[in-house]
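Re: folding output
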Amino acid sequence: MDFRKHNEEVKELWDDYHHGCNHRVPILISADEQFRLPLYGCTFKQYYQDVKIHIDAQLKTEKWIRENVLHDAEMGLPEYWTVSPSTWMAENEFFGSEIVIQEDDYSWGKPIPLSKRELLKMLREINVEERIKQSKLFQQYEEMKKYMRNMKFCGRPVKTSFTVESTHGIFTKAAEIRGLEQLCIDFYEDPDFVIELLEIITELIITRIKTWNALLGSDNRYPTDKEWGLADDSLTLISEEHYRKFVLPYHQKIYSEMSKGKRSIHLCGKVQHLFKTLHDELGITIFNGPGPQINLLQMINEIKEPIEIQAEVAHATLRSSQKEIEETILSMLNDEVKKRVKMWLLGYPGKESSLSNLKFFYECGKKYGKIKREK
């Protein structure tokens, strides 16, 4: 494999993409623990609890991916390596959830077993800086910095790449710390409580981001002129009516507090009913996460203005048959969609995704992602 040639072609593709004249849709593959840890040979529990394993697993699997997984990103040895602590459950820990570290799957946070009044009181009493400094994330970050001082891997420097700039979601975190089913019941039994809970969570998220940036010595200043966005996957649970009544005011607050630039959001569930509202009410123009469950053409027709779609294909597709992979890509890379919006397609491999399937995904994406532009 001629990495230099590949990297030059990829750079040209992304330059064209940013100028709106790319000849095909960029195809990316992004791998997390589900794909990396079986490659490396350790459990999730070992990875989450042992900083040395955490670093070694990231470096060795990143090297393997850069040498073996074809996609529209730089391949071969980098100028320097970047390693970061896992942040999956850091917000849940911050809010007071008990974190369950599983032997061979993602960690997760238990709902907080308090009454409504007790939960609100506990959240109001959080000392943000103190809670951050007591967190496992902060401790691992400090340990990683010490361990990685002057470290090299394959002759290249290793750096810590770590920032806290966003959130996994205002509604999503509320649902996880209250319990998904219970929060949905609260909508009907005690809507005032839901509003108060979301208000407190929003304030804490904003303060947490700013405090982390101060502790890291970051140059970030909010509201930023750069693109800013958040995730909120649990929005798939609620109607557009409930979104407008309960969540929208707090999305408006956090976006206005954090961003003066382009606005983005990550949503990977069945949220077809929310895209237009998110665009019209929040000014979101970059949608990350729409998958095969979303009618992209309908989404574009409803919004009626220029947007960017960062589409995704999940674990299940990439471990399925090549016929199913091809059918999924064909359904998403519609000719009209490709011509009307900026778009890329990303695949998330899991532990059962074969290298041959990943190569097939990339080749199919290149084949069906060609864009016929009017001269």
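--- second protein (sequence, then structure) ---
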Amino acid sequence: MKSVKRVRLLLLAYISFSILVLCINGVIFAQAKQQNQTTPVVDLSLPQPEQQTQQPTGGEMTLFSLLVAGGPVMIPLALSSIIGTALIIDMLVFKLRQKNFFDSELVKQVNNLVLQKQYDKAIEICKSAPQVIFKAFLAGIEKRDYRKTDIESIVGEVLDRAIGNLMQQNTYINAVAVIAPMLGLLGTVTGMINAFNVIAFQAGLGKPELLAKGVSEALVTTATGLVIAIPVMSFYFFIRGKIRNIATQLSVLATDFIDNLCYSKREES
């Protein structure tokens, strides 16, 4: 239960961190936009035209408008964020729970039954238990007449397959962390292309507001890609460490089981 609560706190921290950084980026972008809107210098020696009421330029830029400013590249970035979050939740909340791999009490029961040479009862427990370690135990008991090295290979193959599946899913998380900044870089390139097109074909140098869309697209997509990649990459390494820890625990349990199985065979002979 404590590990589940810890995982939930980490997930909340990840989501909160992402939203916080996006909001900070929005405030920074809005402040930069307001600073660029400088008032013109007025020469009092010249006749002044009638003052026109300045229209409000709007309040601070919202998170939604910030995302819109990023352009079309924000769509795959949003999808990558959703996919990465879903994979992380699936791994931490569901896949990496201890009860999916072993039950300490059942492991003791199986080892005791093996030492007592009650293989049929041990097989029944292994078949009824859903954890990965008992599938390995079952394979070892069924091949108990083999040499120890062969039993180790059979048991290890079952465990390696389970750990390999976890590692494979974790590589998908790593892929999201790698692809997100690349998408942000793509948005930077397309944004700068749009900005230079404005300069070349629409006389953008005389109208800075026409350049704002391209420049904002270039900056927002880069920031968004990094905001997605940094926490996802952090969770990738965290999950990889948990998988290695689980693999070590399973290896220790498997080694003890094989030793007990071989010992019972020697006693039987």
